[in-house]
Hints:
The complex is a heterodimer of chains A (732) and B (78).
Chain A: H1 3-9, E1 15-22, H2 28-36, E2 43-46, E3 51-58, E4 63-68, H3 80-92, E5 96-102, H4 106-119, E6 123-128, H5 130-135, E7 138-140, H6 142-149, E8 153-155, H7 164-178, H8 191-207, H9 216-224, H10 228-234, H11 238-258, H12 263-279, E9 284-286, H13 296-304, H14 309-350, H15 355-372, H16 375-391, H17 393-407, H18 415-423, H19 429-434, H20 442-451, H21 461-471, H22 476-500, E10 511-514, H23 522-556, H24 562-578, H25 582-603, H26 605-617, H27 624-635, H28 639-647, H29 658-667, H30 673-685, H31 690-699, H32 702-731
Parallel strand pairs in A: 1-4, 1-5, 5-6, 6-8
Antiparallel strand pairs in A: 2-3, 3-4, 7-9
Helix pairs in contact in A: 4-12, 8-9, 8-11, 14-15, 14-16, 15-23, 16-23, 20-22, 21-22, 21-29, 21-30, 24-25, 25-26, 26-27, 27-28, 30-32, 31-32
Chain B: E1 2-4, E2 13-19, H1 23-31, E3 39-45, E4 52-56, E5 59-63, H2 65-68, E6 71-75
Antiparallel strand pairs in B: 1-6, 2-3, 2-6, 3-4, 4-5
Amino acid sequence: MTTAEAFWKLEAKPKTIIALAGNPNSGKTTLFNAITGARQHVGNYPGITVERKEGTINLKNTHVKLIDLPGTYSLSAYSQEELVARNFLIDEKPDIVVDIVDATMLERHLYLAIQFFELGIPVVLALNMMDDAKKQGLRINRKKLSELLNCPVVETVARNGQGKKELIDVAIKQAQLKNKIWAPLDISYGTDIDLALDEMEEIIQAEDFMTVRYPARWIALKYLENDQEIITLGGQFTDISKRLTEIVEQTKEHCLKTLNIPPEAIIADYRYGLINSILKQNIIIQEKPQQERIQMTTRLDRFLVNRYFGPVLMIAILYGMFQITFSVGAIPMGWLENLFAWISQTATLLIPAGYLQSLVVSGIIDGVGGVLGFVPLIAIMFLMISFLEDSGYMARVAYMLDRILRIFGLHGYSAMPFIISGGIAGGCAVPGVMATRTLRSPKEKLATLLTAPFMPCGAKLPVFMLLVAAFFSEHQPLMMFSITLFAWIMALLVAKFVRSTVIRGKSTPFIMELPPYRLPTLRGIFIHTWERTWQYIKKAGTVILAVSILLWAAMTFPLLPQQQVSQFEMERNVALNTLSDSLERQETLTAINNREGQASLQHSLAGQVGTALEPVSKWAGFDWRTNIALVGGFAAKEVIVSTFGTAYSLGDIDPEAADTLSSRIASDSSWNKFTALAMIVFVLLYAPCVVTVVAMAKESSWRWAFFATIFNTMLGFGMAVSIYQIGTRLFA
Amino acid sequence: MLKSLRQMATGEKAKIMTVNAVGEIGRRLRDMGLSPGTEIEILGRAPLKDPVSIRLKNYTLTLRNSEADFITVEGLEN
């Protein structure tokens, strides 16, 4: 039984559905978490581009279902979030809307409240951030505000839960009082608009035009506001809709002639006029003189987004995150490594040698363990990204980078998906691709999600570290930095390429609030981090587990023919009988075992695929063993190093202990600096891992996910071939 | 004197006279509180002089110069 079903099965007590609405950054989700408790009963319901969260609380005489709607500035259906919020209110008719407003920005936040009044849905206003308001010396006459708005007003501080009990009590009481009856507020928008509204309302009432779903005057208002969603819906009733549109056209013409302003602007102006007329009645009392007001945010911004100092600091912060992730993350990563080594040993002892042991140890434990080993890294990185997001800094990053990103057909909002995907090395493209949801324009979103997987994610890093250690050991930090830089350049260039060919189109506006700086709450950050880390862990338990088993099978079967097996057996017997020196005997035996391992690998399905690809891959300097690793890497980039280890007949190579493998590769005659460079570039650019491809398909379509797989691989291979061919010809 | 928001200098204060955008951009600008009569102050500009960040209604808003072009203002004495 799901939470929702359980909720409806509860008997006897009345049920109240409360929708939490409000502007972004109004503290909505903080309040939601404060009310529902430590993530109890919180379910995620992924929508088209946004998620809505539900929670339940059990009170003495009622059950409350709380719905956290996406943050919106308005109900104008400008963004997906607004549409989701609006349609929820209209279709599911919650008992009451709790509109959370930031008490320090009452004027702007009331704009949404006015639109709830227009719709007529019962509302309770939560004056949130009262602590900030007090700090700014603001006092709000809430009794008078409540009278003027004709709805209850409650003061809250979401961060510490202050006022949440009163808020819920008042909301339930108001819901019972209103008893689901909607009472749209008649606002005057000036004579011209009012007359048109009257006329249209009459038609709508008389014809019962969509009145089942919406209030009549509201439909008329949306027609005048040129609301595409409503107009499209109304288009089905062609005749009525034609009459309405006629009135709209006449009004528009008249307004433009007399005032030179379209109706939609007049309506907005009157809404603000109403807000001002309310606020002017001594609602906000400035207790301290203006100068003493703490404008921490504006003062901080003078430094943090300064034209010269801002970018320097931004790079320093991002670099600092990179440093902390790796230095702090190394400690728990070591523990996990030891843990998996121990599990591996135990499994070897418990399970008799044979296929089952091989499957469990080299297939499952090594494969899944290799991925889970990165969990601390990922968690720490997400912890810091969540901190930056919740503190308000991420919006500044978008602001500072917008101009540069726009050159390449991207948007300020593309910055975050890039950073999460590994733009400062060590992220993950899966949440990065999901973060593209904040982009409003489908074209800019597509360009961002197609290029975000180029970033050096946490799974690609071990490959780079291995190859850099083997061939460029004297320039390690510089090389790692150059790889990251190269990833950004490629992402931007490819974005520019797709935006001027397959997904051409104008750039969308950048109109973004810079929220006040706030010290994030620990709970908020941990919930954020946990949700994202958990997705990563789930991936290890599902996709990677399956892939590990498949890869193991592909690298094991078909078995070497009996004839060859006995050949190696014979060689071993010869060595055992002829060599008397134990050290020499041991070495010879190891060499024979390695050759047998190599031979069986080459004979296996994976080996055959690798060999079949060799005629093509040799252009980039990749032999059949590299091919196996790269094909495996398509499943999950984490697999590359471990597959490499096996393919280079070193038995079980620990991905973290890259040193031994790296010296082995460094001394291998088939490798040189240019092969290594070609490989680095190829791994950086080629097909995103399967999980990312699925995420991309979810956020766009399978067509684009396939496009990225093919296009990126071709691009990566082309670059790798040029590096290898030019390098070996000119410099070798 | 009337001028475009784009022409305002950092630290300058002004009152919005008109918002000439229609359709989506116009709606968004109005949703964010850019309505005639609103007082604004230029806080600064991003590294490449675009976007611009402004203060209005006790909060900070950023928009590109191409959006700022839709807004005409009248300078205010400081």
